Every structure is written in structure tokens, then in C-alpha cells.
Amino acid sequence: MAERNRTRRRQHNSENFMDYSLLFIVLFLLGFGMIMVYSTSSYEANLTYGDSAYYLKKQIFATILGLIAMMVVANIPYHFWERFAVIGYIVSVVLIFLIIPFGHESHGAKRWLYIGPISLQPAEVAKLCMILFLASMICTMGKQIRHNKGFWMVLLVPMPIALMLWQITRNLSSAIIVVGIAALMLFVACPDYKRFVLLALAGIAGAALVVYASVHMAASQAGETEGMGFRFERILAWLDPEAYASGKGFQTIQALYAIGSGGILGKGLGSSMQKLGFLPEAQNDMIFSIICEELGLFGGFAVIIMFVMLIWRFMVIANNAPDLFGALLVVGVLGHVAIQVILNIAVVTNTIPNTGISLPFISYGGSSVMFLLIEIGLVLSVARGIRLKDL
To answer: What is the DSSP string of 82-130?
Structure first.
């Protein structure tokens, strides 16, 4: 009898781990996101397309494709994808270059490729492929990343992709995310934290210099911003949005109006006023402001708590991953989601200058939700490799 119990315990302990908590959080965010996409976009969709559910239908289609891809990836051993790391890097470069002749322009920026009825944003492909490539590269280099040459090699690898995203697609936020993913993965793999402190200080100094240059240029031109780049204009609008209320500061001011008018408990789901033509891109970059308007600060904090729980689950899986490659994959996805959430909420609250970035799993955007779900599939695949500890 005792031997039978020991055998049963060993069989039980050898079972793979499935993180249902992570799955529930992701599904909750997706469901909540579709509700908010319909709430924020129904007015505009009805005026523009004659169908109040136009954006919702497209989001549901992309979500279904993403969920199918997530389940497929989750059931494939994650080491299978390691052989495609270099190919993924090359594909990212090719897709970004294809934007030049074949890109679809929207709101003054070329960021999308159309493959039949499906639109693809190369920036989302680049984020996923960068996670895969860096995880493979760091594992291959081993202890060499602790030396200066290896450290800088890993940190410079994403720079070509980041520069192309910035210059070709005019997508600075995605470029920042790619670099941020690399920095976080390297931070986890390399124990020498002094270098990261110096890099952080250099980054803060560089950002301060750009802000100072923008203010100085505006002062030298007596407030005229026509000769300045639109990014400098965004910095000025960030510093004083009311002075640029009819231009670059308009969206920020409307977002702040939405957050402020929501109060503690909000006006009620579907009762937003700012989404009725006042707030541009309400269903995309600024959806968090509508959440705060309709559901109040309570709703906004609830969303933030869900993302904190999601990041916590990532950390649990990364800490218990079977090997370094799996842990780095999860850290890369963690970095992608965390940086994107922080940037989006910081933009909406005017904490940083306005830069177009969606709120993961909630904002409208087919490419974003599809590739985020593929990344979740990778995390679930790593989680399935975890063996339950002995009782």
C-alpha cells in the first residue's frame, strides 16, 4: 500500500504545470478590452461605417486568430522555436523594409502591410522575434555577456531594428519597447548592475537634453514651431498642453478631461462624453482615459491591478522555468507587456510626451492582440515544462 502511494505520488509530481491563473487574467483582459472597444468606438463606427460594431467585429476576428495561435504555440515545446531565432530577426528586417514600397499610410505614418484582408504591423513581429533572438543569443554566449564585449554586443543587436522602426515607420514607442526588452533580458542574465545604473543615468541625461533643446529652440523662434519636428512639438505640448490646445496638445487635454470627469466611480459604462468625437483615437491609444471616465478611478486602478497580477505570474513562471532559455523568453514577454502598459498610461496621464502606443489586450488593434497572444502561448509553453515539486 505504501509503495503504491509512493508510485502514485511520483506520477502526480511528474505532471506538467499549467498556469490557469495566467490564462484567466489574459482572457479577462481580452473580454474587458472588447467591451471597452465597443463602448469607445460605437459612435464613430456608426457615423463612419454605418455599423456601430465595426471595430468590435474586427477585434473579435483578430482575437480568435490570436487565441488559436496561442493554443498551438502553447502545445509546442518552446525549444522548437530556438532554431528560428536568426530567421525571425531577418524576417523582421525584411518586413520593416517592405513598408517603404508597400506600406499603408494612416494618420500620417506608414506602419501597416496588407496581406489580403489582414493588416500586419511589422513592429509587432519585430518585438516577438527580438525576444526569441535575444533569448537564443544570450544562452549561446553564456558567461561571455559578463565581459564588456559580450555585454555591448547583446545591447547593440536590437539597435538596427529599433532605428528602422523609428525612421521608416515613424514608430518611436515601438523602438523604445524593443530596446527596453533587450535591456531587461540582459539585466536578468548579467549580474553586473553598475553598467545598468550608468546606462539609466545616461538615458535620463539624454532625455533631459532633448527637452532642454526643444524649449530652447521654441524660445529662439519666439514660440513658432513650424520649423521644428513634430516630436519637438509633442515635447512642448507635453510641458504646456493648454498652449497647444488646438494642435499637438488637443488629444492630451481631452484625455485629461475624460479622466477628471470620471471621478471615483465614473459616469457608467457607455456614458462617456469625450468619445463622442472629442477625443481622437479613443479606442486605440487613449482607451484608458475612457475607462477612467466611464468606470472612474476605481476602474482604472482595477485594470492596473490586473496587469500587476499578470506580471507577477510571468515572474513566477520565469523563476521556475526549466532552463535559462525558457526563463529569458518569459522575461522578454514580461518586458514587452510591462513597458507598453507603463508607456500607455504615462502618455494618457501626460506623464511623458505623447507617443502612439496601445494598451495591451485592451486597445483596438489586430496585429497587437494577435502577437501578444502568441507571446502568451510561448509563456504557457514554458510553464508546461515546469514539473510540480515533491509533496
So the answer is: GGGHHHHHHHHHHHHHHHHHHPEEETTEEEEEEETTEEE-HHHHHHHHH
User: Minimal CA–CA distance to 290: which of 305, 309, 308, 277?
Assistant: 277
Distance between CA atoms of 110 and 26, rounded to whole angstroms?
30
Q: What pLDDT sits at residue 378? A: 96
Q: Residue 161: its pLDDT value, please?
A: 94
Domain ranges of the chain: 195-228
Contacts of 123 (CB under 8 A, 6+ apart): 96, 111, 165, 169, 171, 174
Q: How far are the Cα atoms of 97, 103, 339, 343 from residue 168, in angstroms, in the given order?
A: 8, 10, 22, 21
Predicted local confidence at residue 11, as pLDDT: 40
Q: Can you list the residues of the chain whose pLDDT is less than 50?
A: 1-14, 227, 390-391
Contact 249, 240 (CB under 8 A): yes
User: In terms of DSSP bridges, do strands 104-106 and 109-115 run parallel, antiparallel, or are they unpaired?
Assistant: antiparallel
Residue 3, H or E segment: helix 2-13
Q: Which one, of 348, 351, 370, 376, lies nearest residue 284 by Cα?
A: 348
Lookup: cell for 186: 540582459
CA distance 125 to 388: 33
Q: Please tell me the distance from the alpha carbon of residue 149 to that of residue 156, in angstroms, as a whole number.
A: 11
* pLDDT of res. 132: 95
Q: How far, in Å, CA of 375 to CA of 152, rounded?
A: 26
- Measure the CA–CA gap between 70 and 371, rounded to whole angstroms: 9
Task: Write out pLDDT tens, residues 156-192.
Answer: 999 999 999 988 888 888 999 999 999 999 998 887 7
pLDDT score for 9? 45
Model confidence, pTM:
0.90
CB 187 within 8 A of CB 196: yes
Q: Which three cell numbers stand for residue 199?
A: 546606462
CB 48 within 8 A of CB 353: no
Which amino acid is present at 361? Answer: F
Distances in whole angstroms, Cα of residue 8 to Cα of each of 13, 15, 50, 226, 329: 9, 11, 61, 75, 33
